[in-house]
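Thread: Newbie trying to understand structure tokens

Hi all, I'm a second-year student working on a class project, and my supervisor (Dr. K.) asked me to get a predicted structure for one chain before our next meeting. I've only ever worked with sequences, so writing a 3D structure as a token string is new to me. If someone could post the tokens and maybe explain what I'm looking at, I'd be very grateful. Here's the chain:
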Amino acid sequence: MGSNNSKLAPTSKKSNEKPACATTATMKLKQIASGGGNLDTHDEHEAPPPYNAEDRARSLAIPQLKDWEELLLSSDKNRLAILSFATNPYSQVLTNQSAVQAVDRPVFNVKIPLEGAPITNQRSSGRCWLFAATNVFRVPLMKKYNLKEFELSQAYLFYWDKTEKANWFMEKIIETADEDLSSRLVQKLLEDPVTDGGQWDMVANLVGKYGLVPHDIYTDNFSAQNSAKMNWLVAVKLREHALTLRQLAQSQPERLARQKDEFLKEIHSLVTIMLGPPPSPKEAFHWEYYDADGKFQEVYDSPQGFAKQASAQLARGDVDPRRMLSLVNDPRNEYDRLLTVDKLGNVVGGRPITYVNVDMKTIKAAAIAMLRAGHPVFFGCDVGKFYDAKLGVMDQWLLDLSLGFNTTLRMDKAQRLNTGESSMTHAMVLTGVHVEKGQPVRWRVQNSWGEAVGDKGWFVMADEWMDEFTYQVVVDSRFVSKEVRDILKQKPKALPRWDPMGVLA
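---
Reply by user tm_fold:
Sure, no problem. This is what the structure looks like when written as tokens:
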């Protein structure tokens, strides 16, 4: 369903045109230069002539490049495109207004009654997964405490995630000490030891161990909102530590425990100095607020207790956080299969990364059922493809590349994953869907980029875009069939650490 390779040609939805080979394209340009034909016509029966390797030009010939340029510039359309793109981004010039109008409708016949407010802003950080998760967790707390607006502290979870990831990294470095430093696995571990990104199972680990606190109790500071410098410093130290730990593991393993503790103490110090000391998970905080009726209220609770309140409130709505599972759509792998990613995680001893790989029909049905029951849905996607942040639109027909560049994109979902063209780069929240004749048409998306983007922070996602660029939804297992739930009983297939499904949103 999501791997239909005819979906991504951003020209006309009725187009069956196939990309011309280089030889045919050159013939077409010559035809234009002589005054006949155009680039939009193509004989589907034409095929490139066979040739031997020795007949192939192995280097670029300047006269040939000149011929190509002359043929390209012989087209009025190409010359207009060059002039247009010289002073404007092509994404703006080639915006397909019919596609925008088709999905830019903030009307949905399935919408949860309490979406949560305000629109949050992750600033210059990669904390989207924490924002998406806390935007889901805040809804039951808003109901419990009668709040019009409420925000949980993303920085609180961010602090503990940095510390836990440092420990996780050191453990994996020790586990792989017998592998060559230049091995693909070790290099992948060293690539980004304390990335801002994460996954649903990782945030579940953090909440289960450290709890939740209101944003007022532990607010964002500069390093939380602008994490690059902090990440660089911590990553440099961790790479430095990794060399020592590998050496000790190979030659003096009896020194490992003490040395690792010293290194973790140093990382803890760096993170605490930059983010500030957080509330203790088990000690009570004092939270004062006005409820939706304007009445003063106060709460004394620990972060762990506060998280249990959210969990209990969710359970009253027939959604149990312990039953939440991550459905993914990875057409490279067998459907109805349990997947995991080797050596990916944050909390040692916590729940592993677990993906239930299913088709898009199953993913969308589960998301719609969750929304109909009144609950927001955490989802992961590749947000950078065919979207307009200003308009708040995600639609694979958004750009008419054929009009501007005489080309179309033909890779399907599996091919994009295999070639590194796409991966799960961003997490957001679904709060509504518009269904016509039993089929979803467009989805309502709550983002975490502030109110300056989209429709005051809200996006509309075309259903066909969801097919191609959405990889994950997290739902209560009661919204899927027994057959899907039973997949959790399988021994998971472990994808390598560098697999695209190991990219953290």
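A couple of things are worth pointing out once you decode it. The domain at 110-502 is CATH 3.90.70.10 (Cathepsin B; Chain A). Residues 1-42 have pLDDT under 50 and may be disordered. Feel free to ask follow-ups in this thread.
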